[in-house]
Amino acid sequence: MATPKRAGGRENVRALEKASLALDRLAGKWWFYAFLFFLGFGLLPPYASRGYSWEEMGDVISEGLSHAVIYRLVDLVWPSVLLHVLALAVIAAVALWGEKASKAFDIWAFATYLAIAIGQGTGISDRYGLVVLTGNVVLGLLVAFSWGLECLEGRNKFGKEYLRPRRLWLVPLAAWAYWSPVEPFRLDPRYLIVGYFGVAYCLTTPVVLALMALYYPGVNKTAMRLTAFLGLIFGVLNVSRPLMAGPTPAAIWEGTILHMPLLITSAYALGITIGASRKRG
Q1: Which value, to the nearest 10 degrees, does the dihedral of the CA atoms of residues 215, 218, 219, 221 take?
Q2: Over the stretch 143-185, which tens digit does the pLDDT of each residue have?
Q3: Residue 7 contacts by C-beta under 8 Å, 6 or more apart in sequence?
Q4: Collapsing DSSP states into helix, strand and coil, what is residue 184?
Q5: For residues 91 and 101, what is the distance between their CA atoms, to the nearest angstrom?
Q6: Among candidates 203, 169, 184, 181, which has minimal Cα distance to 83?
Q7: 250 vs 234, 236, 258, CA distance in Å?
Q8: What is the model's pTM?
Q9: DSSP secondary structure code for residue 182 in this structure
Q10: Distance between CA 182 and CA 217 in Å, rounded?
C-alpha cells in the first residue's frame, strides 16, 4: 500500500509529465505563437502606478525598459562581474565535459530567464512610477517555465555525438552579444566583464541559442523554440529601430548593430527546429 507521501510524489510526477506534454504540443502549433504574440503585444498593456494615456504607451514602455530594476546589478558592478564569470564557467563546462555539465547549464538558464522576466519587465520611473511591462513579463515567464521543466526533465544532451561543427559560424554572433558595448561605435573592453549580458534578454539569448544550435537535435526543442520565438520578436523590433526613431548613431548602434545577433540566432534556431519537424512529417 502506497503511503500518502509516495502517492503525492507520483501525482507530482504525472502533473509534470502532463504539463511538459501539453507545452510540447502547443510549441508545435503555429497558432500558439500567433496567440502568444497577440497576448504579449496586444492584449496586455503595460501597467504604470501613476497612470498614462493611450498616446503615452510608447513612452511608458521606453521608460520601463530604460529603468529596469535588474539593470541596477550593472550599476553595482560586482554582481555583473559575477554573472559574467558564472556564465563563462558554465559554457566552458559544457565545452569541456559535455552532457555532464547539462544540468548546470539548465539551472543557469532557468535562473537567468526567470530573473530577466521579472527584473527587466519591471522598472521604476520618475515620470510613471512603478512600470510593469505586463506582456514582456508573461512571455518571459513562459520561457523561464520551459527552462524550469528542462531542469526537471534533462533533455539537453550536450554530447560530442550531437556537436555540429558546421554551425560554428554562430559563435562570433554569440561573442558579440556577450560583449555588447553600449556606447555607440566605441568598442569598450570593460563590457566583456561588466555589461548587460545576463540581465537583458536580447543580449543573453544569442549565447543560449548558439550553444543549443551547436548541439541540436540533442537539446530541448520546446525550450529552444520558445526562447527563439520571443528573441525573434525582440530582434525584429530592435533591428528596425532606425526606421522608426530615425537613423541616429544611437538607434543604429543600440538597435541594429547590437541586436543583429539576436535576430539571426533566433531565426536560425526556429528554422532548424521547423525544418526538422517537416522532414519527420
Answers
A1: 110
A2: 999 999 999 999 999 999 999 999 999 999 999 999 999 999 9
A3: none
A4: coil
A5: 9
A6: 203
A7: 17, 17, 10
A8: 0.93
A9: -
A10: 34
